[in-house]
Design goal:
By secondary structure, the protein is mostly helical. The protein has a domain of about 110 residues. Helix content is about 55%, strand content about 10%. Strand 1 and strand 2 form a beta hairpin.
Amino acid sequence: MQEKNHNTETGNKSFKRVEHFQCLGTTLTNQNCIHEKIKSTMKPGNACYHSVQNLLSYSLLSKNIKIKIHRNIIFPLVLYGCETWSLTFREERRLRVFKNRVLRELFGYEVDKVPGEWTRPHNNEFYDLYSSPNIIWVIKSRRMRWAGHVASVRERRGAYRILVGKPE
């Protein structure tokens, strides 16, 4: 039985069908499985988080400085290459859990005014304390920005032809 050729041609270029390839530091697979990449991207984010954990729990450091550490050091490590991710609910949940864990460390415990007991803020309270969009929104907006960039290069690049191409 003859094997079918799954190459794609666009203009004068031919693209060979492969099981996986690298794009923006991410390994893309023909099964669209991003689980391993997100896991490997979160390792440096976790390592960075643990290296600054003592700093984040230091009570004399202002919340603004702690937020800047999170926003400028930890967050970019976790989101590196997110423009190519196609998230499932499982990966979305994993990313939200990571961000909430870091925010919980940033804001720590607070004294409840009425009973006078220590309480931790709930996940939905973080968005009031920390004026940053949801991590999933950030990923989706970066993907849209990247798609806009690819669309703006027009026919000069193969990425555009792949983005707007119609496989036969």
